Amino acid sequence: MNDREMLAHLRELFLDNPDLEATRWLALSISIALVAAVLFLVRRRRLREEYTPIWLAVSAALVFVSFRLDLLRELTRAIGAWTPSSTVFFLGELFLVAICLNYAVRLSRASLLTKNLAQEIAILRAQVQKLAAREGSARE
After folding, report:
1. Which residue, of 72, 82, 94, 101, has the greatest Cβ tally within 10 A?
2. 44 three-state secondary structure
3. Structural domains counted in the chain
4. Nearest CA to 72 among 60, 57, 84, 86?
5. Is 76 exposed, middle or buried (0-12, 13-18, 19+ CB in 10 A)?
6. Tens digit of pLDDT for each residue in 30-53?
7. Tens of pLDDT along 101-120?
8. What is the span of the domain harbouring residue 104?
9. Using CA atoms, how far apart are residues 38 and 44, in angstroms rounded to an integer?
10. Whole-prediction pTM
11. SS3 76
C-alpha cells in the first residue's frame, strides 16, 4: 500500500467513524441555546432586526445538522475534508469572513457619512459666524 492509498484509507476511516450519541446531544443543545440566545437578544433589542434572519438561519441550520449528521458527513466528503468537525470549522470561518466583510462595508459607509456631516457642520458654522459678524457690524 503506497502513501496515497494509505491516506485515502485513513480519510475513509475518519469519515466512517460512527457518531457518538453524546456528540449529537451536545451539538443539539448548543444549537438550541444559540436559537434561544438570538431570540433573547432580539427581545431585549440588543440585536437589530436586520441581523435576526441571518442568525436564526444559522441557528436553524445548526439544529438541522445536529439531527442529520449524515448530511454533514456527505458535505465533508464533497468538499474533500477529513473530518466533519473540520467542515464545521471551515463553514464557520466562511461565515465569519462574510460577517467581517459586511461590517467593513458598513464602517466604510459610516465613515463617509461622518466625513460629510463634519464638512456640512464646518460650512454651517462658517455661515453662522459670517452672519454673526454682519449683525455685529450692522449694530455699530
Report:
1. 72
2. coil
3. 1
4. 84
5. buried
6. 999 999 999 999 899 898 888 888
7. 999 999 999 999 999 999 99
8. 3-139
9. 10
10. 0.70
11. helix
